[in-house]
Amino acid sequence: MGLDLALYPKRFPSLRTHLMAERLTLDRCYNLFDRVKEKPAVPIPAAVLHYDDERGVVERVTDSYGEPLMQVWAGVLAAIPEEEWGWSEWNRAARAYLAAIPPDTPVVLWWY
Q1: 58 with 17: CB under 8 angstroms?
Q2: C-alpha–C-alpha distance, residues 41 and 102, integer Å
Q3: I want to staple 108 with a disulfide (CB 3.0 to 4.6 A). Which of 6, 8, 65, 96 is the partner?
């Protein structure tokens, strides 16, 4: 068992509530994860809504490890060099997605 990361871009930044519906699940690449951890992240401003199979939609302020949820901006993540995204075509597709959306889009980091 290892550390995994999913990215949740906020689809409608003007809304106060962030429904974590847009999920970019990354393949495990610890070099990439290290680059993400180096980026300036800030705590989420308010609880996010997350779908749980057992409980339905729930408010979350912490990740699976009990750590506060943090966010970075799409442009910051998209600026990580392509070679750092590893061998995975899925990771490179996630980077392309982040590069295509507005750079000031908040992206919640979900470590699990």
Answers
A1: no
A2: 17
A3: 8
Q: Which amino acid would we find at residue 71?
A: Q
Q: Per residue of the chain (112 residues), what is the pLDDT tens digit?
A: 579 999 999 987 777 778 888 899 999 999 999 999 999 999 998 889 988 889 989 999 999 899 999 999 999 999 999 999 999 999 999 999 999 999 999 999 999 9
Strand runs labelled E in 16-65? 18-19, 24-25, 42-43, 48-52, 56-60
Residue 96 has which token pair?
A: 């392309």
Q: Find tokens 């990580």 and name the residue.
A: 80
Residue in 45, 59, 58, 51 with CA at minimum distance from that of residue 6:
51
Q: Exposed e or buried b for every residue in 61-81, given b needs 16+ CB within 10 A? A: eebeeeeebbbbbbebbbebe
